Amino acid sequence: MLNTFFMFNQNYYPYLFLIGLSVIVVAIVLIFALKSPFHFPYFEYDFDVSHRRSVQTEDLIDEFLIEDRMQSIENHQVAIERWKHECKDKISKYTFLKKYREKQFKKSIDDQNAYVFYVNRQQTRYKQRNYVKTSYRVSTTVDSFACSYAFLKFRNEKLKNINYENTLSKYFSNNQRKLMSKELRSEIMKRDNYTCQICGKYMPDEVGLQIDHIIPVSNGGKTVASNLQVLCSKCNGSKSNKMNTGFKK
Ligand SMILES: [Zn+2]
């Protein structure tokens, strides 16, 4: 009945079109008005590990904290608190949507995952076109880690306790000798100016020089800058002899 009524009264078509259009407009307006206006301000940080092999994300975060000393973290935490205040201000200005907005605000808060770290690696890929192979580089996220402000604060306290000398996993590693890297070696050489710290012999070619653990690894000494020094092989030899006789007594 209704169908035939509309079918045969073509005069109603413009009205039907207008009604349909206004329903769509109202729906769009409603969708936008009811959408959450709250966007939690995440802290995002990218690590580039392109030139490093087998890196642990927890070591990267420690390295970040050693460098940052919580500065950008504290700043961001202030920004998050400010954002929360601003949201509450905004909500207080709502009248009939107040409860609804409050729910949306609470749902948007994500303190547990506020700090997000991405581990990226540049990879070379190839594409072939008309028998010509060309390379291009893409950055892929190989790992990501999200944590709270409290987590970072706790981690930073632990790093502070070891004077920010190394990442936690490396500092407490049972294999301190393995941590002696080429980079650390040249860092200590430069710091001690290629000079034996006992006899003062200067050897810029590094040939007769060794890196010594001031407190030996066997006594719990760590492979960190503060426990390392440059010695000539002669002084290093007599040092370890003294140590050995000391042990026998
Ligand atoms: Zn010496």
Distance between the termini: 113 Å
Strand order of the largest sheet: 1-2-3
Number of strands: 5
The proportion of residues in beta strands is: 15-25%
H/E element order? HHEHHHEEHHHEEH
Oligomer: single chain
* Overall tally of structural domains: 3
The biggest sheet, with number of strands, parallel, antiparallel or mixed sense and barrel status, is:
3 strands, mixed
Mind telling me the C-alpha Rg?
A: 32 Å
In this entry the ligands are:
zinc ion
Number of helices: 9
Low-confidence stretches: none
Percent helix range: 40-55%
| Global mean pLDDT | 92
Overview of the molecule:
This protein is an alpha+beta fold. The chain contains nine helices and five strands. The strands form two sheets. A three-stranded mixed sheet has the order 1-2-3. It has a two-stranded antiparallel ribbon with strand order 4-5. A hairpin with a 2-residue loop joins β2 and β3 (132-147). α4 (71-92) runs antiparallel to α5 (98-108). The longest helix is centred in the N-terminal third of the chain and has 22 residues, at 13-34. It is elongated. The protein binds zinc ion. Zinc ion binds next to β5 and α9.
Summarize this structure as a short list of keywords or feature phrases.
47% helix, 3-stranded mixed sheet, 3 domains, 9 helices, alpha+beta, DNA Binding (I), subunit A, binds zinc ion, elongated, 249 residues, two-stranded antiparallel ribbon
Q: What is this structure, in a nutshell?
A:
With 249 residues, the protein is of the alpha+beta class. It has helices at residues 2-8, 13-34, 57-68, 71-92, 98-108, 149-161, 168-171, 182-191, 233-248, and strands at residues 43-48, 115-129, 132-147, 209-213, 228-232. It folds into three domains: 1-35; 39-172, no CATH class; 178-244, DNA Binding (I), subunit A (Orthogonal Bundle), CATH 1.10.30.
